[in-house]
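Problem: given the chain below (305 residues), write out its structure.
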Amino acid sequence: MAKDSNDTDHRPIRRILRRMIKAPAVWSLLWPMLLLIGSYVAYSRWFAPRMVAQYGTLDPAAVTLSPAHEYVRTDLVSEVYRDTRLSELSPLDRRVTEKLASAFVSNPWVKHVRSVRKLPGGKIEIDVDYRRPVAVFHLTGDKEWLQTIDDYLASIGAAIQGGADNAYFPLDGDGVLLPTEKMTSEDTRNLIHIEVSRVFPTGTKGTPFGDRRVESAALLAKLLDAVRDNVRVAKIVVSGDPRFNLVPELELTLGDGTQLFWGSPPGMEQPNERDARAKLADLLSGNYVSGSNLKISQQRLAPIR
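Solution.
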């Protein structure tokens, strides 16, 4: 009986000891759980609503673009924000940079989006490569054809003041149509004119013109625009019958009225035709007379001033 009494007396002590030994292990599990629960409650009740209120939608004022050239005369951020669904985009979206790049490259003035950077405070910086006009396509044709275009434009509510023969469509060096809304008459005078009789653009803003002859002339205009301070080219005309000339034949009219035969667009030269670099060298050195054919080597001529 004494043994049983001693066992009974020592059981509470053993139970307390066991609890003391196990307590650190229990608390090591309990504290992280309490911390996680507390963090979740704090996030749900205070932090998450504040984040949504501050960063729930993309603020256009927080977006900055790389500086544009002088022909871009609109607020592109507001324009893209209006024309796409950026009002539904959150800076917290994991794909926000990808979606922003896609939205901005859809604008006719933007050729490429080089990078999209997320900055502190919800700000976003976008570096873009802009399309730049190097020429304007001038509608030309006989009176009957121009009247047909006038009637068509009037039917869609896009009549041109002064008639179709006063219509100019700005193009970049790839032959892509650019916006006309902010173009001025001074712009059209300063840019190279491209003329192909009885041709009307089939593309829309931000897409190719739709005629390979015009797009080839735009490629040449890009080359000539780079030297405009030295040689003023007023007009590029496409000659020849497109049914027989797979590669367009291009003619130049300089600012002083001098007419020259250029030949094939840059990079499309035919056998025995000089390349664009050689032709350009003659232009820059003044080694030509009116009517010169730049496709073939020119005799050294006195420069025309």
